[in-house]
């Protein structure tokens, strides 16, 4: 009996991540031909020519410390996959496993007990929480409340202000000089890991933000972009790029602009690379003109997830003062 080729089972070892876009795999034997016709090849080539593209600028290193010294914590270039972590846990004896759990609970208690819950639903988001938005927009109560709470906490900290207050402040400051403009309200929003962009949709609907930059490495259908572009006063830009490779200071539309960074569900190391992207210190070689042209962070709110995907390579706070090692 003859079995068709596409029905034969293949070993997982024959499949490797595509070097152009690791989100999909290709047969190792077909790699060279695939590289010439990968649908994302043209997009990758176009991206590499953009001034804001800088490969690995926010990636971090295992040997990196705040003072620039090397640390003997993990092997260089080490990547620990979820499968490797599972294998390490399964290989433990029962006493060792219970010891690990006890240490994790102890560390969590010493660090996280002082972190309060803060669930805020601001009045400004009532058009969403009361379902008064366009019926064509997707609505899931769980996501709406999560998004509203992110914005509510930003309002609580004074980073966000209601659209009416922003409008009045803008009128009063129209004749202000450059220095006072740097102390004005947030004039732009950058959403990292934007996905379809509905956190920004709520922000634009409820707070009157005028400039939006969506950063997302994947392509999505049913995005909020169409609805956002219908707002005549809104300037919208979407960058399809990995946050790890984004030099935010080189984005033309953000030059000299105070911005707020937001993100919902920044999986694993995406939180760390986002923080690097936003607060990466400027080089000492920068001229005064370059410093003036750089964008500047006015506030930040990130909802993290998928902590099991975190890697030491990307961890932003890997100085000796903040490390707690679980010796086994």
Automatic annotation (TrEMBL):
The answer to whether the entry has keyword Methyltransferase is yes
Keywords of this protein's UniProt record, alphabetized?
Coiled coil, Metal-binding, Methyltransferase, S-adenosyl-L-methionine, Transferase, tRNA processing, Zinc, Zinc-finger
Enzyme Commission no: 2.1.1.225
User: Reaction(s) catalyzed by this protein?
Assistant: adenosine(4) in tRNA(His) + S-adenosyl-L-methionine = 2'-O-methyladenosine(4) in tRNA(His) + S-adenosyl-L-homocysteine + H(+); cytidine(4) in tRNA(Gly)(GCC) + S-adenosyl-L-methionine = 2'-O-methylcytidine(4) in tRNA(Gly)(GCC) + S-adenosyl-L-homocysteine + H(+); cytidine(4) in tRNA(Pro) + S-adenosyl-L-methionine = 2'-O-methylcytidine(4) in tRNA(Pro) + S-adenosyl-L-homocysteine + H(+)
Q: Where does the source fall among the domains of life?
A: Eukaryota
Annotated PROSITE patterns: ZF_CHHC_U11_48K
Q: Tell me if Transferase is a UniProt keyword of this record.
A: yes
Q: Which residues fall in a coiled-coil region?
A: 217-249
Question: What InterPro entries does its record include?
Answer: Methyltransferase_TRM13, SAM-dependent_MTases_sf, Trm13, TRM13/UPF0224_CHHC_Znf_dom
Q: Which GO terms describe its molecular function?
A: tRNA 2'-O-methyltransferase activity; zinc ion binding
Q: Domain CHHC U11-48K-type spans what residues?
A: 15-42
Q: Name one GO biological process term.
A: tRNA methylation
Q: Pfam family example for this protein?
A: TRM13
Q: What is the role of the protein in this entry?
A: tRNA methylase which 2'-O-methylates cytidine(4) in tRNA(Pro) and tRNA(Gly)(GCC), and adenosine(4) in tRNA(His).
What family name appears in the similarity comment? Belongs to the methyltransferase TRM13 family.
- What name does the UniProt record give this protein? tRNA:m(4)X modification enzyme TRM13
Q: What is the organism of origin for this protein?
A: Sesamum latifolium
Taxonomic path: Eukaryota, Viridiplantae, Streptophyta, Embryophyta, Tracheophyta
């Amino acid at each position: 009996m003859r079995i068709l080729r596409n029905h034969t089972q293949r070993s997982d070892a024959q499949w490797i991540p595509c070097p152009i876009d690791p989100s999909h795999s290709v047969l190792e034997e077909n790699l060279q031909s695939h590289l010439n016709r990968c649908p994302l090849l043209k997009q990758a080539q176009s991206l590499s020519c953009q001034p804001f593209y800088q490969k690995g600028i926010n990636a971090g290193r295992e040997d990196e410390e705040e003072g620039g010294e090397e640390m003997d914590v993990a092997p260089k270039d080490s990547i620990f996959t979820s499968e490797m972590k599972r294998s390490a846990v399964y290989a433990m004896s029962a006493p060792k496993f219970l010891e690990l759990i006890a240490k994790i609970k102890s560390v969590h208690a010493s660090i996280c007990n002082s972190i309060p819950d803060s669930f805020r639903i601001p009045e400004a988001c009532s058009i969403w929480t009361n379902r008064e938005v366009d019926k064509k927009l997707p609505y899931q109560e769980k996501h709406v409340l999560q998004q509203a709470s992110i914005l509510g906490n930003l309002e609580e900290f004074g980073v966000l202000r209601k659209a009416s207050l922003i409008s009045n402040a803008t009128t009063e400051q129209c004749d202000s000089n450059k220095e006072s403009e740097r102390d004005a309200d947030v004039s732009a929003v950058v959403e990292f890991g934007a996905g379809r962009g509905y956190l920004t949709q709520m922000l634009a609907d409820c707070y009157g933000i005028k400039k939006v930059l969506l950063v997302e490495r994947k392509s999505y259908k049913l995005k909020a972009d169409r609805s956002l572009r219908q707002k005549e006063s809104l300037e919208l830009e979407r960058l399809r790029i990995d946050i790890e490779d984004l030099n935010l200071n080189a984005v033309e539309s953000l030059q000299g602009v105070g911005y707020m960074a937001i993100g919902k569900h920044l999986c694993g190391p995406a939180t760390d690379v986002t923080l690097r992207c936003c607060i990466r210190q400027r080089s000492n070689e920068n001229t005064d003109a370059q410093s003036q042209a750089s964008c500047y962070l006015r506030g930040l709110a990130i909802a993290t997830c998928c902590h099991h995907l975190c890697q030491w390579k990307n961890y932003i706070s890997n100085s000796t003062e903040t490390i707690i090692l679980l010796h086994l």
